[in-house]
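Quick entry between incubations.
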Amino acid sequence: MGIQIINDKCVGCSLCLKTCPFGAITVKDKKAIIDLHKCNLCGACLPSCKFKAILLEKPQDQAEKKDFSAYKGVWVFVEQKKGRVQSVSYELVGKARELADKLKTYVGAVLIGNNLAMEAQSLICSGADTVYLAEAPELANFLDEPYTNVLVSLIRKYKPEIVLSGATIIGRSLIARVAVKIDAGLTADCTGLDIEDERKILLQTRPAFGGNIMATIISPNYRPQMATVRHKVFLQPELDKSRKGKIIKESFPINEMASRTTLIEVVEEVENLVNLAEADIIVSGGRAMGGPENFKMLHDLAEVLGGAVGSSRAAVDSGWIPYSHQVGQTGRTVSPKIYIACGISGQIQHLVGMQSSKIIVAINKDPDAPIFKVATYGIVGDIFEIVPALTKKFREVLGK
Amino acid sequence: MKMNIIVCIKQVPETTEVRINPETNTLIREGVKSIINPFDMYAIEEGVRLKERFGGKVVVVTMGPPQAEAALREAISLGADEGILISDRAFAGGDTWATSNTLSHAVIKIRKELGGFDLVLCGKQASDGDTAQVGPGISAFLDIPQVTYVKKIEEIKDNKIRLERMSEEGFDVIETPAPCLLTVVKEINEPRIPSLKAMIRAKAAKITVWSAKDIEVDAKDVGLSGSRTTVVKIFTPPQRTGGQKLTGEIPEIAEKLAGLLKSEITG
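Done. Structure below.
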């Protein structure tokens, strides 16, 4: 197992060199050499070789076939806060429906909390066939250990073949712990999910290297196959009030619901009322904002548009706006319908956090700012003149 | 209360320099510098601050090729006491399951040598993989409590740690017993700049190197063969290209943009 260059076939053409994300390939004496300390066995070099001189053996090529016929169903871990199901969970139920139809199986939704009967019903209306409802006062709020125990125990009992979760703060914390406990493969932040026709396995596509390359990942030898997905990657399904499904109430012994960590308090920050990850429209400000007082102008525009306010790292580091608003590599990744970048130059660290937005509007006085390279609509000019003019116009057009 | 703190870090390419060659559509990686994963800088700083407050020791551990030693030296220049490099060809190609498993074995060995630990600190995610899965994975293997996305440690008393975990709406105040694992976000602190003296000391520091055998991990459970997932395809996504420039007098531009966006906003 591993990777090797077949020297008889290699002509030293160097085509593979540039495809290596890890800079692990060099050419010496007209033969490619792979530095195995740097190589990550990702396989990015394989398609570049016209002479089929790179051989990569992966473990599943050799693995014996395991029998997974007992594993059925596409599950979603449903995230609720204060008894309300989060939008990303509905989006995933919609996607799970599509995957389950391809696999000719059912959609299961796992809902953990307290007093959630109404929410269980709307999951069925969104496409779930079975809702596994774990209700207890101890489970009302998310805590890593009891939620892990409940989900692990349900997965062991019902054996789903796929488990999906939102790539939220809660989802990412919980699912990674669950995957290790049940010995399953997990892929983070998928932007595409599909079923491979031949083996009926889950194809999980995600960006790597800040979105510079995409990777498709599988977990053929373990069950369930697990993946997380960010907000707004998939569409929220329409509610079908006539849909019927089962609600199975699950109860757990008190020791399984015990937690070593305790939740003392949930604090909601007023300025953070609009959830950046869920916002359809984001108005974002950068270094050119010049000071905290000028963010009011962005709040005004965001309010008219029904959106949220974001910012670049420069504005956060200058102390003009709290970190929770930061979009980009060290902040949040967002994917709204419309992203309006005001006075943001567009450094790569910012771009990786917002370039999957559907429409990008960039306003900047530097016509050569990199942000214009990704902008759907670019406006060269002074944000202090343009932003208020936009607010005024949209107020008029939208009748607000 | 003296604290023994283990900080897990990763050496990553400085992604600002990763660019796509527009002609070949491939990554340009020549001359890309390696740095400590930006989020891990906050984990190192927090560990060092806790040590300075309570006494104890900060051990920094990384899994990677021999050149990842540089990341450990940098961590020592930032105040860590010891650097341990987990390096073995068997570790190559590991997914988050295999990596968490490897690091948890390293933590167990460090625990033995220190006679126990109070905290494992990680950055919330690595900038090259962005998964945020390795931290929770390590705590799952060790079966210790975890709190992710920590933005503030409020208080440490009687072996209890009170902290703030970031949430989409604000934050949660959580109390956890030690030992536990925390992953930290940028808001938690501002990493220091190392002094010249500290850099010289770090240059001379001894870095311990452990192989798969040293940490007593089964070779079939690490690297590519221990991975529960496998990459089957890598491709370059269509690059976003610049669109239309809106020009004219400002009211005219506003009018144009409103026309272009209206259906998207109301629809």
